[in-house]
């Protein structure tokens, strides 16, 4: 775990650095995180004339089709520059990813390089002792982190080891269709909008168009924000239990249930029909709001084919709830026989300017300061908006919570399950809050 003060210093450094670079040039899953449960496996043909095949790396990540396509381009570039390396790839949606990884760990068949998430999943896999300590590769210079802030590097540490190299930084955001809201006479979000404003705008769009007023909310991340904006936390400070009053979760469940009853909030069967980022309701003009991570805006906007805007989550006390986070990490399997080559690939991914121009901020604001400077002059309008949003949150957010206890991934899965039971009216909000607390505290106690 890293200290909050250190990460807060990092956040200000990164956002201010990029802002200066952008100015000088004149000029980047859960909230829903992926393409559903499908898995795609590929071997990249670099097209090079090299002998190839001397080293084979397996690489796995979660994400959208856009992330997949861009990552494959970066891999092709790496293979062109390293013709002795062949990279076999697998990608899937966020939920399917963790199921697949768990099966791989159980079967002793992990990929060499894998995407890893901050918080509950880093805690879980650190506890399983299946990730390699990357500090020796940093010390040898194989992975050059000299242009990455120390605080951000600390976010990849767990159990006294460096288990992940950060790939970017992002934040929760509300993506909205400004034109759809204006056509319905609804208020456009600003820095001071509230949950009541969200509900009123959703109702106005639904009444005017007959479409939904919002996409559904991903309970884990959004309720964590909801607790923070109300001066509480999902987990308590010493990571031994929950950190909020049950009434808060009851209120959250009731809010979303009420919106579903009004027809402004889609039922779960509709949400599950639109799991892929490229198939979200806002893409098809069937809802004006979508809640997700800022690094997913590139894929969402590309799929929509029209301008979308960003706002922080609804208030009051938005700054207390909002936070910036490491977007994700690359980790290396502890049992990989190709750790040196895996480390070289990670170094290339975070430090090569050409590779980062291909990725174009899809995994969040680049972590290497020189890469950020190089990208600043050529940002498209979508990435410029994303980077400015991250910069704005540097002054309007609070330190991230890092107090995820062992078993927290199971806890968050339980939260998702009881939320579904509320939306299907199998449990009342009060019954669901009680059941979740019992399950969560039992899980945490068992995992201590």
UniProtKB/TrEMBL annotation:
Record Pfam families: SBP_bac_1 (PF01547)
Stretches the record annotates as Disordered: 27-51
Protein name stated in the entry: Sugar ABC transporter substrate-binding protein
Top-rank lineage group of the source organism: Bacteria
InterPro entries xrefs: Bact_solute-bd_prot1, SBP
Biological classification of the source: Bacteria, Bacillati, Bacillota, Bacilli, Bacillales
Keywords: Signal
Keyword presence, Glycosyltransferase: no
UniProt KW Signal keyword: yes
Signal peptide (residue range): 1-21
């Amino acid at each position: 775990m890293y200290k909050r003060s250190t990460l807060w210093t990092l956040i200000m450094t990164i956002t201010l650095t990029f802002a200066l670079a952008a100015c000088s040039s004149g000029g980047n899953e859960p909230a829903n995180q992926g393409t559903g449960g499908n898995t795609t496996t590929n071997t990249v043909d670099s097209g090079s004339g090299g002998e190839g095949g001397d080293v084979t790396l397996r690489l796995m990540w979660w994400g959208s089709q856009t992330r997949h396509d861009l990552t494959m381009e970066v891999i092709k570039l790496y293979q062109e520059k390293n013709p002795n390396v062949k990279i076999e790839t697998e990608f899937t949606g966020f939920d399917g990813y963790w199921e697949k990884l768990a099966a791989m760990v159980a079967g002793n068949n992990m990929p060499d390089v894998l995407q890893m998430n901050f918080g509950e999943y880093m805690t879980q896999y650190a506890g399983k002792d299946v990730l390699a300590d990357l500090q020796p590769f940093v010390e040898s210079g194989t992975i050059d982190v000299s242009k990455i802030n120390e605080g951000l590097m600390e976010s990849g540490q767990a159990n006294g080891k460096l288990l992940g190299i950060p790939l970017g930084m992002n934040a929760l955001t509300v993506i909205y269709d400004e034109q759809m809201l204006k056509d319905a006479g609804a208020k456009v979000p600003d820095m001071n909008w509230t949950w009541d404003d969200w509900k009123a705008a959703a109702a106005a769009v639904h009444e005017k168009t007959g479409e939904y007023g919002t996409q559904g909310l991903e309970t884990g991340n959004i309720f964590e924000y909801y607790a923070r904006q109300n001066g509480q936390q999902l987990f308590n400070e010493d990571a031994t239990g929950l950190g909020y009053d049950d009434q808060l979760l009851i209120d959250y469940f009731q809010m979303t249930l009420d919106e579903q009853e009004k027809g402004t909030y889609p039922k779960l069967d509709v949400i599950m029909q639109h799991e892929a980022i490229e198939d979200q309701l806002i893409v098809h003009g069937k809802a004006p709001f979508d809640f997700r991570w800022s690094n997913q805006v590139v894929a969402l906007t590309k799929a929509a084919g029209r301008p979308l805007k960003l706002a922080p989550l609804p208030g009051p006390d938005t700054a207390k709830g909002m936070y910036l986070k490491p977007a994700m990490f690359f980790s290396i399997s502890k049992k990989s026989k190709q750790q040196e080559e895996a480390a070289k690939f990670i170094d290339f991914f975070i430090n090569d300017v050409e590779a980062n121009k291909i990725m174009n901020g899809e995994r969040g604001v680049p972590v290497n300061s020189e890469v950020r400077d190089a990208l600043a002059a050529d940002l498209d309008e979508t990435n410029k908006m994303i980077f400015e949003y991250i910069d704005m949150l540097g002054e309007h957010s609070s330190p991230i919570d890092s107090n995820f206890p062992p078993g927290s991934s199971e806890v968050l899965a339980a939260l998702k399950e009881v939320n579904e039971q509320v939306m299907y009216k199998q449990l009342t909000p009060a019954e669901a809050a009680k059941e979740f607390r019992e399950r969560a505290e039992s899980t945490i106690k068992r995992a201590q």
